[in-house]
Amino acid sequence: MEEKIPYKIYLEESEMPSSWINLRAFMDKKPAPLLSPTTLKPITQEELSKVFCDELARQELDDTSKYIEIPEEIRNFYKMYRPAPLIRAYCLEKALKTPAKIYYKFEGNNTSGSHKLNSAIAQAYYAKQQGLKGVTTETGAGQWGTALSMACSYFDLECNVFMVKCSYEQKPFRREVMRTYGAFVTPSPSMETEIGKKINEEFPGTSGSLGCAISEAVEVASKNPEYRYVLGSVLNQVLLHQSIIGLETKTALDKYGVTPDIIIGCAGGGSNLGGLIAPFMAEKLQGKKDYRFIAVEPSSCPTLTRGVYAYDYCDTGKVCPLSKMYTLGSGYIPAASHAGGLRYHGMTSTLSELYDQGLMEATSVTQTEVFKVAQQFARVEGILPAPESSHAIKVAVDEALKCKETGEEKTIVFGLTGTGYFDMYAYQKFNDGVMQDYTPSDEELQVAIEKLPKI
Amino acid sequence: MEEKIPYKIYLEESEMPSSWINLRAFMDKKPAPLLSPTTLKPITQEELSKVFCDELARQELDDTSKYIEIPEEIRNFYKMYRPAPLIRAYCLEKALKTPAKIYYKFEGNNTSGSHKLNSAIAQAYYAKQQGLKGVTTETGAGQWGTALSMACSYFDLECNVFMVKCSYEQKPFRREVMRTYGAFVTPSPSMETEIGKKINEEFPGTSGSLGCAISEAVEVASKNPEYRYVLGSVLNQVLLHQSIIGLETKTALDKYGVTPDIIIGCAGGGSNLGGLIAPFMAEKLQGKKDYRFIAVEPSSCPTLTRGVYAYDYCDTGKVCPLSKMYTLGSGYIPAASHAGGLRYHGMTSTLSELYDQGLMEATSVTQTEVFKVAQQFARVEGILPAPESSHAIKVAVDEALKCKETGEEKTIVFGLTGTGYFDMYAYQKFNDGVMQDYTPSDEELQVAIEKLPKI
Question: What domains are defined for chain A?
């Protein structure tokens, strides 16, 4: 074992980043602009400000500022649960008998259990600054809703979460964490919005969908000038806030003179992967260094690996702006899987453009192979990983095993975005040997892709 | 805000303790010896070794070695999840508007979610060293069973957990974490032991008890020479291993020149409190410094505040040794409360003796007042605390509010032993306003106390 590198690298408070890094500003060919869902023309800051907070609308459209200062109050909140440790996976390396050096950035050390808090606190801060009364959002698996509840509680903002009805009923503990932080949690579709009433009328007894919950949250925010809508992934502003992950990781590695060869992250909407790779990709874009980047997605929702690069709606209800992105079609409903956070039909525009330019790779994996590695990881590294995060572990392990074949001492870094405490039902399925996989056929994928807007 | 003290103090690996501190060795008047349940005479190492691992039996009886070196393999495991951060509760102080300075040692940053792992890994290590095939134990709330599963998985030891049947059914997620780490989890009473069969016959459909689960675990270990029984609290060896909490806390405080005035911990069997105060109490015993120590127990199980100091059985089944301790009687069944980890009739002998000598204070609190403070703490400090740990928060807040009255800038340190992710049912009761309190009457307490063994 190398004595020089500790098991866990914690930065000092003085070493923590004071600015976020805005990856798009380093790209020669920028991601295509967002389009207004009503005019289908590039959306203006004014239009965006009707739904999002003013400063967040500004950040959403800013593709020239390379660094954006983190306000002091956000930095103070970050200090409560950050820096997140960068962990050297000595025990995993030993178990795999690989010459590879594996590191992971662990974002699960906070009550929300994931990296989502990094953007939630920023969005709540700007809402408070603007003098708003509250924010609305939707949540599926519950990580984002939990993070936002914590952030709103800190700034004494009202937090209205529309929770997909089936999750509301099946994940009561997630719901209770949000309530403990003072959030109002409403099962969606509800009878509190026009769209909710309409859907309940059309489909009595429906268990809801993320698309419907988004539409309800946007409706409430649009109708009340004291509220705005906030979103936990896909948007440029979210990638910006999540760059804290990559910046801390790079500072920690630089401190010990370590240069990674491969950087791996799971990808649903792209928030954690975009944040993790940001400073490294910026170096690659500037020709300073070369890195391999790998996005890992579930085979049941293969956005990058099997989707098309086109303009599409960000939500199923078609009330949000359109984004040019890799997509399976906003009407595509991924098979129920245990990685709820990765069940998104599209991919944030920045990562889509980088992938299209060949600067990033992507691969897909099945959930049973993911849980097998998750269990192995838990047993040797001691952390119970979230199903989403475990997608990255799977590919990190695969790459480490390739090194074992070739004898190469590559340095692999992956993002461990969260913990699996609220996913024990999924682990139970795996432990009982009854977990199943689903990979859609080409014909199935074609249905929603054919319905993409013609732009 | 003082700039000098960071939000979180993390020790470097090189600053981590290399020895445990054995508090009893500093006491002039030692705790009374354990008695054999069969002879009622002081138990010998040989007798103890039939149930416990050899080295652990030795540690159990060693009240002279002031420091005991932590084996390298245990230190390496500690590095995977330790040092635990010592957190300055700036946000709580601000919310309380108190001049007091509040610190807490957070032990929830590991998958078992509590401090229990500190002793589990030590006990598993010594079992492995002895060449055993596995260990047996019982678990109620599930924190100890989870910690032991993780530890056994690391050392490739078989782990047999008898889980109180009602917990097995009501806390399926705890059960699944243990299974994910490879443990065999059996609902108790089972049909796999003589005592289990007997209890099932006598009380068909019983939901079990901790006392019965202990008896089953001890029976399996006693009948098979390749197994030993392990226990997560009450024992001297457990306090020894948990001293890592106090040693890290003291090193972190010393680093910044901070001397606490009051040190507070929740107390069930006494493992975390005993560990937290160890190095501080050693100084007090040597006359080097003075500190106030406060043990906090639930009003539904008021061992120190309303029990008697006498010899009693450590378990309801009376198969374990007898200990001289503050006790409510081994037949006392505390009312169902949401702090399962504090529902123990006795208190570890070391803390009992220190309390009896007037070196430590004790107080009891009701669970609704505990959850009220837990919620406030979660909202301002961002960590969702376990119900057990929240007992310490309650009293820390009370002491901080007293400082507000008097204007004193006292330094308060408390142990935050774990997280509440698996206690959301309890939080739900609180959120819904249907949580109830129970404080036993003197007459009720008298019943079990009258049945104490006459020694």
Answer: 2-13+82-113+242-449 (3.40.50.1100), 19-69+115-229 (3.40.50.1100)
